[in-house]
Amino acid sequence: MSLQLGLFARPPRPGETKTRLIPELGAEGACALHEAFLDDIGATALRLREQRPQVQLVIYSAEGDPGDVLRERARRWGVPIVAQQGDGLGPRMAHALTTGIAEQGAAMLLGTDAPTLPLRVLLAAHDALLCHAAEGPPAEATGGAPCCFGPVADGGYILVGARGEVPVFDGVRFGTEHALADTLRVNGTRRVTRLEPWYDVDTPADLRLLSLHLGLDRSAAPASAALLEALGVPRRAAAGRGPFVSNLGVPPETC
After folding, report:
1. Angle in degrees, 0-180, between the axes of helices 22-51 and 67-77, rounded to the nearest 10
2. Residue 106: beta bridge partners?
3. For residues 26-45, b (16+ Cβ closer than 10 Å) or e, as one string?
4. For 18, 25, 59, 143, which has the most beta carbons within 10 A of its beta carbon?
5. For 152-180, what is the mean pLDDT?
6. Strand, helix or coil at 174?
7. For 6, phi and psi rounded to 5 degrees?
């Protein structure tokens, strides 16, 4: 059994991507940051494939026309690019997971809004789905058919994976703080692995956290670090996120 890893990506277009960051970065800057996020999370996915050669990578474009940027990344990374199918995020994820499970036996979907997501989280997800010993921090598991989620600080999740059976997404309030809780509730009979929590970047407060993180360790997302430096984004603490910063692998005294 192998695994398909699908990158759920939106074609970068000024004024249409990372819109909540436009007041901070401008339309062009927010679009460029979205592209940098794609490069960083793509690099992490490629590192997973290096360590787990049976992994098949696919880019799932949010639009039928993926645009030049996604096409170029697909060529550079040597991966196929296909359009997402379905009306709404839940049906689109269900369709992609169904396709991946049919082709490989297990599938995982990864968004592009968490550029600093560590490789260890992807390794833990892969191993949880394929029944190997998980790497990284301990995961929390319950009974049923296997699936996994990568929680993020805003109550959603950046990663979902499954083996054998696609999770249910009916009634999930995506885009809210209830997304993960709703998904766990409607999949109550599944064996669920909750992976190490992380953070995604959607709002100006998230951007400040990212800038702080990359100021301490630019290797966590090199493309994003370079872009933020070029844009002149200052490295300052993210208000209200202090306790979460301590989970980034950075000694507390440096924060």
Report:
1. 20
2. 163
3. ebebbbbbbbbbbbbbbebb
4. 18
5. 94
6. coil
7. -105, 125
**Domains defined for the chain, CATH in brackets:** 3-194 (3.90.550.10), 204-254 (no CATH)
Q: What is the largest CA-CA distance in the chain?
A: 49
Range from 37-51, 120-134, 135-149, 182-196 carrying the lowest mean pLDDT: 135-149
Residue 79 phi, psi (nearest 5): -130, 155
Q: How far apart are CA 123 and CA 127, in angstroms?
A: 6
pLDDT above 50 (res 136): no
235 compared with 91, residue with greater pLDDT: 91
- Going by C-alpha positions, the residue among 242, 25, 225 that lies closest to residue 115 is 225
| Helix and strand totals (H; E) in the chain | 8, 8
Q: What percent of the chain is modeled with pLDDT above 90?
A: 81
Q: Do 172 and 179 contact (CB within 8 A), yes or no?
A: yes
3 state DSSP class of 202: coil
Please tell me the distance from the alpha carbon of residue 61 to that of residue 59, in angstroms, as a whole number.
6
- Nearest residue to 142 (alpha-carbon basis) of 90, 185, 95: 185
The mean pLDDT value for 205-209 works out to 95
Tokens of 46: 């490629």
Can you give the pLDDT at residue 202?
Answer: 95
Q: For residue 145, what pLDDT is reported?
A: 59
